[in-house]
Design a protein that fits this description.
Distance between the termini of chain B: 35 Å
CATH superfamily of the largest domain in chain B: P-loop containing nucleotide triphosphate hydrolases
Keywords (chain A): Isomerase
Shape of chain B: globular
Shape of chain C: globular
Distance between the termini of chain C: 18 Å
Radius of gyration of chain B: 22 Å
Strand order of the largest sheet of chain C: 2-1-3-4-5
Number of helices of chain C: 5
Helix content of chain B: 40-55%
Oligomer: heterotrimer
Pfam families (chain B): MeaB
CATH class of chain C: Alpha Beta
InterPro entries (chain A): Cbl-dep_enz_cat, MeMalonylCoA_mutase_a/b_cat, MMCoA_mutase_a_cat
CATH superfamily of chain C: Cobalamin-binding domain
Protein name (chain A): Methylmalonyl-CoA mutase
Helix content of chain C: 40-55%
Largest interface: A-C, 46 and 33 residues
Radius of gyration of chain C: 14 Å
Order of helices and strands of chain B: HHHEHEEEHEHEHEHEHHHH
GO molecular function (chain A): cobalamin binding; methylmalonyl-CoA mutase activity
Chains: A alpha/beta (547), B alpha/beta (328), C alpha/beta (133)
Largest sheet of chain C: 5 strands, parallel
Structural class of chain C: alpha/beta
CATH architecture of chain C: 3-Layer(aba) Sandwich
CATH topology of chain C: Rossmann fold
Chain lengths: 547, 328, 133
Amino acid sequence: MNNQKDRETIESGHRRSNGEDSFKNLSGFKIKALYGPEDISHLNPETDLGLPGEYPFTRGIHKTMYRERPWTIRQLGSLDSPSRANERIRQLLKMGATGISLCLDMPTIMGKDSDDPLAEGEVGSCGGVAIDSIEDMRNLMEGISLDEISINFVSNSQSAVLLAMFVAVAEERGVPLEKLTGTMQNDILKEYQAQKSYYFPPRPSMRLTMDTLSFCNKFLPRFNPISISGYHLASAGATPVQELAFTLANGFTYVEEGIRAGLSVDSFAPRLSFFFKAHNDFFENIAKFRAARRIWAKTMRERFGAKDRRSCILRMHAQTSGSSLTAHQAENNIIRVTTQALSAVLGGTQSLHTNAFDEAVSIPTARSEKLALRTQQIIAGESGVINTIDPLAGSYYVEALTDQMETECYKYFNEIENLGGVISAIEKGYYARIIADSAFRYQEKIEKGKRTVVGLNEFFEEEEIDIQLREADPGFEDEKVSGLTDFKKNRDHALVKACLNDIRDVSQGSDNIMPALIKAVKSCVTLGEIIGVMKEVFGEYREDYIY
Amino acid sequence: MKKKLSTDEMVKRLLASDRRSAARLITLVENEMDDHHKVMSLVYPHTGKAMILGITGAGGAGKSTLTDHLIGKFREQGNKVGVVVVDPSSPFSGGAFLGDRIRLQSHSQDDGVYIRSMASRGYLGGLSRATYDVIRIMEAMGNEVVIVETLGAGQDEVDVIHIAHTCLVLVTPGMGDDIQAMKAGIMEIADIIVLNKADLDGADRSLRHLQGALTAGSFEEGEWMPRVVSTVSAASKPEDLQGIDELAATIAEHQAYLRKTRAIDQVKYNRVEQELGLIFKDELQKIIFKGLKGTGKKREYIESIIEQQDDPYSVVKEVLNTYLLTGE
Amino acid sequence: MATKKKIKVLVTKVGLDGHDRGAKVVSSLLKEAGMEVIYLGMFQRPEGIVKAAIDEDVDVIGLSYLSGEHLIFTPKIVEEMKKNSVDDVLLLAGGTFPAEDIPTMEEMGIDKVFRAGSLTASIVDYIKTNVEE
């Protein structure tokens, strides 16, 4: 097979061709018809792959991987009201979920209370939970053991405030802070790059992130204060290699900032975690996960001088690709989610969220969410892929692709470096430009039939399949607003004012903001009120570029 | 689909400041639709009183955010403001992505502000000519100030700059030594050079460069010497903005200078001269292409040039002789 | 040489949601189809959208929805259009909608609804067919 001529025959033997777009993965890499020993001959199995659980962790972060414990099956536990979300969480746990992700509604995401005029019509929107005050956090966490169940708060700009509420509720319930588990997404950089739910300019936002990091470092050693998220970059349009490069560059930026804030690298790096997308291209996704671990490990050791092996370990949560799902023939999404989930498992994720198939149509129903959960349980229990550790290691293709992902990543690292680092690149509109461009190209390929989407540009059918829809609760908004009005009426107004003044003072200085926030939420100050005062001090961010 | 009022009725409403009629009429002149010339004749007597401010600079210099603040200043002074924002069209599809309104949102609820986005469309003279007409419509609408924002400070935009009474050119510290290269161009068109993003590194150095370049230039006694104003037009807090008041004051100073020295007469003269040139060019071209249309001669001419039986100048001479000297 | 009138489209997002990928991609593809797109961006309110549509004399308003706010904001925009007698502009919506909401949206005043994953070609065709001089 090493015969050059045979090779050429194989390369030219295309079953079908999309011209120059033939056989490219989502990152735009041209994939060869066949990979062989020569494609990985430059790799050293010991230093480039290592053993599972060993540096550079290409083969996974645990020695035993899923043989000892499968990944965390983490599903969305959010619903409009905190008490309904609480019910949903308990139900999911009963069905076998082992972790929970919690989305917020639009007003909470944008730092506004449910009674804000701009929140009208959006309270409880997007399948997210509305959190205004400590009362909401109490209801949300009712009966859930805070030291056992890992809740992933999909919370960013408002993370410091939510963390304060979470800590305050734990203290009320007498749970020692050092036992608290969970994750705050708290990844502000990707908000400016893609997700766009920012309030303040990047630098004060970074200060708040560092305040939460330092606070967790000191008091909540089991809690993950930042989940560095590529998922949103990919959802906004970044290709897999761009997602990988931008996310890791963001991770390195948090490490630099932590060191600048006076922390030693090994004191906080082990608590950093990651969140990636499992997109359509099966092997590309696996290669992305493997490359992520290797680049992180090498950089942490070589550039940041990390000594603790846990600092070099990239722990990740993964989610199947919401943006790959279609409203047309929505049930096809079940299969998309399944192959994506399988790739995440073969890529060695620590935690996985499978999307509900009806997401492209509406907020998922209990039935579609259960199906998503069962998809993971079937992969874990029936497919046999967990029987051996990192089954794809040594595959000519997978290893070559992993290597290529790594190499291409460094090109983006250099570009970002040349722009003066991540924050400076944000301010110069670098991410907005690249991501908008990639999103455009992706759609253009679909439009022109150069990328197949079954049920859309191939095998299209006119008729709509009737799927069951979740019933929204139309009375929820009024109920939430009137509850909040009562809550605000019955509190110590002088105390609220004093707390807000404290927050203003601390914001202006450089002390850690967490103690003032915890005191404030305990004194019934609301999220919207706190963000409002911070905006006065930090100012509001407006994107200055348009692509 | 679009409902039609009579042209006379629309102009009547325009003069009563009706923004929908203004919008419709702008579409009409921008697309050279029927009655274009009639509209401009009806509108013309109601123009000539507004202050016309040109703002130009490279992409990313902060033109729109600065415009947003200047609108605020002019509104404080009790003026109604019209804004034309010109962006390039795609040379391939002819379409355009016009996103500047995003940065012009402080006044989105103010009826005293009328903003219009325009694609340059890239056809000969199209940008400049349509822009003249659009400004006139905005004047007739009752706007005391009309701001024209265009991209870049290259040769093409110089035409547009002739429209303005007072012309601002934006530069940023990031442009570094490019400023040296641009110096000559800037001096020609700028009445006020705005060093925007003056909070960035290198701003002091850029300021010194610009001032040095200006003092090295030769200006006659009593002539306006371009000013440099440092600004910060994008800030997350109002108190971090810089130089907006000073810029507004400098604009007023330039306006006072134009009136006091009667230099405004020269500005107006230049503007009409420029405009006539553009109209002539367009109209002549129309006559010629109309004459050629359907005769198959255009192809013949082109092919004879390619085959070197003829040269472009001889062909043009022959065409002019045929279609102009004979009247059509 | 009168130029053919370009079709002008205003593209925007309403409310607090910041997912602007769809709005941006559609804008770019409409531009590629030769249209002039006024992009108003995120976080818009009904009054501002309608005022911009009037000032720009657009032929089409395209609303991008994601988070289920379509039933709240659509009537507000339609009402604002009525208040300002804007009755000759196509109103389109794109995004994530349950099938059963589509007739409701059309009753509210949306001329045509395009669901997530639709091909832009169908949007371009619809606009070209329905915007007439």
